[in-house]
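Final report, closing paragraph on structural work. Over the funding period we assembled a curated collection of sequence-structure pairs, and we close with a single example.
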Amino acid sequence: MKRFFSLLTAAVLAAALCGQALAAGSAELVRTFIYENTLYTYVSLTGTDQPITKAEAKLGNQTFPADHKLETVRQAGSPVTYLLLVDNSNSMPPFREEVAAFGAALAQSSGENTRYILATFGDDFSLVSEDVSAGELAEQIAAIPFDETVTRLHTSMDHALDYLESLPREGNELRAMVVLSDAVQYDPNGGVPYETLLDRIEHSDVMLHSVGFGDDAASLDSLGTLASASGGTHQVIGAASAQDAATLLSDSLGGLFVTGFDLSGCTTSGEDQTVSITFAAGGDLVCRAESTVDILAVDNEPATPAPQTPGTALPAKEPGNDPAAAPAQREEQLPVGILAALAVVVAVLVVIVCMQRLQRKKKPAPPPKPSGIYMRLEVLQGELAELKSEFILDRELIIGRDEICDIVFDSSAVSHRHARIFTADGAVYLEDLSSQNGTCVNGLPIHMAVVLHSGDEISVGDAVFRFKF
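Its predicted structure, as stored:
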């Protein structure tokens, strides 16, 4: 009978434990960063249907309750910024349609508070547009020339991180860099080492996602390792369609839970500090997750001196007359010595941490990022007065014979101010300025401003050229 009750008790306990295990959920901190004294966390929650009613963050021996409602990115309408970094090398033209299809599907499946930045890389990171509308994203991707002969993949990704991290942040904005590439690295100058880039990605508040093309398995796996280190996704087109890859990426970010914790009074500081987040439903623990975060600001409040107890002053004693005097003096001086030693140790640690951070962050400063559209001029016929082939279109570019024009052709058939290129509503336009010999696009004369696409053949007088942008 005792054996029966023992077995029954064990079975009941096992069932209870199994029930708790099945009820428990799991959490993964996909992104954790601090902005303006608030710790923001993006969390993947699985395995629980219980509504989370409480979340707490623990740093060191301090606990901070959530001061933001726990919602998904889509529920909260949290801002998401995508930087699409497209490989512009001459090995990518076979994948042009799939890259554009990915952009179109991503724009269609993402929410309203989504910003798209388009950039390319080959010889280096190049910004195409800082704010592309969802409707124009696929069209602008399709206009990329894919003609670079050098592919500085790691250096360009490093410069892209410089650019994203320098942008003013919008609260709990989630930033994602999406690399679309066949992942083949060709950098004759060496560039940023892979391990250095990997370390930076692990510490950046920018999530890295990768979309691979082609069949170079080793290169694609290397790119996927970088994305995994960031907590991002890695997908290869072929195993998945471009549309499915874009939808999966959008759903994975939109389904993350986001909340924030006010760190006022936090005394923890330094790099790679462990943060533990607990999630509870009512009084029951649902799940817990840990990550690391860099905490650079330290809130140190001056210590309040202990109150002095009034009493009767003791008569002064001659040194050496009281055998207990020396030990008493040592007991009073000992805390001061310990505090001084601790202060020195803390100062040394702070210096070491700062030096390590400076060494890790120290790298050649990237060139200033242009605020307009980068355009490259290719002359097919005619002679330029200045051998300049690269331009930034921020307002307009004037084409003509006059030396004050932006693009000057040395030809009497070209009017002093012949035509202009300008932007409006996110598009690039070409307009004839009542020239004597007219302006043509792809052999057809224009009589009003027309939309200009990358690679269109432009004729002004007897000069023929094209712009790639």
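Confidence is low (pLDDT under 50) at residues 1-23, 298-334. The two ends are 86 Å apart (CA to CA). We thank the funder for supporting this effort.
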